[in-house]
Design brief:
The protein is of the alpha/beta class. About 50% of the residues lie in helices and about 15% in strands. It is built from 9 helices and 6 strands. α2 links the parallel β1 and β2.
Amino acid sequence: MTEKDLMRRLLSLTRRAVQEYNLIRDGDVVCVGLSGGKDSLALLAVLAQLRRFYPKRFTLEAVHVSLGFEGVDPKSIRGFCDSLGVPLHIVDTRIAEIVFDVKKEPNPCALCANLRRGALNNEAKRLGASVVALAHHKDDVIETAMLSLFYEGRFFCFEPDTWLERAGVHVARPFIYVEEKLIKQYAKVAGLPVMFNPCPSDKTSERANMKELLRNLPMDNEMLRLNIFGAVKRGIWDKDTVS
């Protein structure tokens, strides 16, 4: 598929989620959490295209929360944001030091995620944003539901739209219908400036283990993933609308 074809597919799936769950309202300031990974870069590119024709008018801001790892240069994502006409705001933190040196967390991902979310939401509030857009995709939905089942004994997943009272923002996930393989294709064809992730826990987290487990289950993998995603949609997201 060409870059144009891939973007068209991404736009279709994103618009479906945005409309179905009312993720963007007229006049919204949408703050995209830009980690520098393929998912968040693709989300920013898609929303930058969507704002050109979506009937509900909205503006975009991008926020990169720097974790404080040495040797990480956000220059490439700054150029990317400039090419899209989206302002980039960089929040410098000591999250890496806190998680790995001060707390010495044996399972650092949860604490890191909480600190990153706090920094992102605070910056979004400072910018006057009404929506924080995160790049969780369809595979993230499936993995999160199974992690909850395996480690918490319940079937749970994040919602497409979550209202945060303290921060005063909606957290939206416009990529919930987008498969990771489509994002990978787009990132490669479009030459997205993906930043290197220096986190030592990047490939050893519980999520990475779950991804591998699901990939290797000895059954029709596509049907398995379809069933899990359908269970999340019917049993968690749409439970209040099912008659």
